[in-house]
DNA sequence: GTCCGGATCCTAGCACCGCTAGACAATCTA
DNA sequence: TAGATTGTCTAGCGGTGCTAGGATCCGGAC
């Protein structure tokens, strides 16, 4: 059935166009500028067309977020070592602020919850966990991963909100990594840990 | 001039009423529910009255945020030691989610910038810095303070967004504090650091 | 006591928002 | 070619932030 396939393909292309346009608009003017009217005009369709592809406006932002999580997971998997992963994470957040905001700051309903979209999200978390594990030193790796991720997330959001000295982003990242890499180094335990630099 | 004074007092009381109502509404139903119409109805005035006290809706949220920062600063100053401070910080964020959101997640324009409101904000940061300083071990205290604060902020926001295991908030906080308190404990330096527990 | 001027407040409205019903056009099926 | 399905649009509803312009109150001058 080639006709049906062509229709479906056209539909997919339009969906992709909507997402790409929404994403571009959000990155250039912020999510407040991504309204149904402006988005519909940008893709040269009327507003109801958007609702043929997405349940509502939040679903569009959610789809952009999911796309971004996939990108972030790939970036983190490609990173080698904890230091490199931290750098990659913060760089992604800085260079894609609107997507990052859609992922972790905007309303959270759909993203988490082990329902229909967790695979790519688990992949991102697993990448962080893999980089953290060598430094867990037998302790709770899951918790240490959450702590490390939270710290990265905090730096990303507070830096973006101009709450931290913009000139010291690099020392902050380095300090955080150093805290983790020397985590198990208590005076009583002289165990050697893998080096990161 | 008693009449002028009474007028001013009435004006101040009304301003306080607006802020308290906005805050209550935000905490009970979220900031999306704090609209000019609902807020005006709740304080039993018409919408234009709000604009006689605040430039716009964001300014109301900003005033609530400033109020919250003062509270947070007081809470942090009252805390004794790094562990206690971390607990107090996360507890405040958890028990006042809407105020915390107004402080650090919503649009950031007015809050920072060393303009007219930094004193109370600097007090909050100074309280964190004072608790961190004993563990800086001669390194850059300011950077370590930013790292610690970012980590707390990340835990607060990701926990609230249900991105972290809700059952492990305590271990996360403990782990973060442990990372800081053992920061200077490299194998080559056997210096004794103050104990926290 | 009367009147005036300024402060205060409200009604009404603008342009925009997310979202949807119902009419119309285009395309596929038979 | 006739009918059914799909796609798209126009028009509109109730809501939003915010403001102009008129009414109303109230302290001070005479």
Automatic annotation (TrEMBL), chains A, B:
Keywords annotated in UniProt: DNA-binding, Transcription, Transcription regulation
Organism: Kribbella kalugense
InterPro entries linked to this entry: Homeodomain-like_sf (IPR009057), HTH-type_TetR-like_transc_reg (IPR050109), HTH_TetR (IPR001647), MT1864/Rv1816-like_C (IPR025996), Tet_transcr_reg_TetR-rel_C_sf (IPR036271)
Keyword Transmembrane among record annotations: no
All copies of domain HTH tetR-type, residue ranges: 12-72
Gene3D superfamilies: Tetracycline Repressor, domain 2
Pfam family, one: TetR_N
GO molecular function: DNA-binding transcription factor activity; transcription cis-regulatory region binding
DNA-binding region positions on the chain: 35-54
UniProt entry tagged with the keyword Manganese: no
Protein name in the entry: TetR family transcriptional regulator
């Amino acid at each position: 059935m080639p006709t049906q396939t062509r229709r479906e393909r056209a539909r997919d292309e339009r969906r992709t166009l909507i997402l790409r346009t929404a994403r571009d608009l959000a990155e250039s003017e912020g999510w407040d500028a991504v309204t149904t009217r402006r988005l519909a005009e940008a893709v040269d369709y009327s507003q109801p067309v958007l609702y043929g592809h997405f349940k509502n406006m939040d679903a569009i932002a959610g789809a952009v977020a999911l796309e971004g999580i996939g990108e972030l997971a790939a970036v983190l998997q490609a990173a080698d070592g904890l230091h490199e992963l931290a750098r990659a994470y913060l760089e992604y957040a800085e260079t894609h602020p609107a997507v990052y905001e859609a992922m972790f700051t905007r309303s959270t309903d759909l993203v988490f919850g082990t329902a229909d979209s967790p695979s790519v999200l688990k992949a991102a978390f697993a990448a962080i966990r893999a980089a953290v594990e060598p430094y867990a030193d037998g302790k709770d790796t899951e918790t240490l991963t959450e702590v490390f991720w939270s710290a990265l997330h905090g730096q990303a959001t507070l830096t973006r909100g101009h709450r931290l000295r913009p000139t010291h982003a690099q020392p902050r990242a380095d300090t955080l990594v150093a805290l983790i890499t020397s985590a198990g180094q208590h005076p009583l335990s002289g165990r050697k840990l893998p080096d990161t630099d």
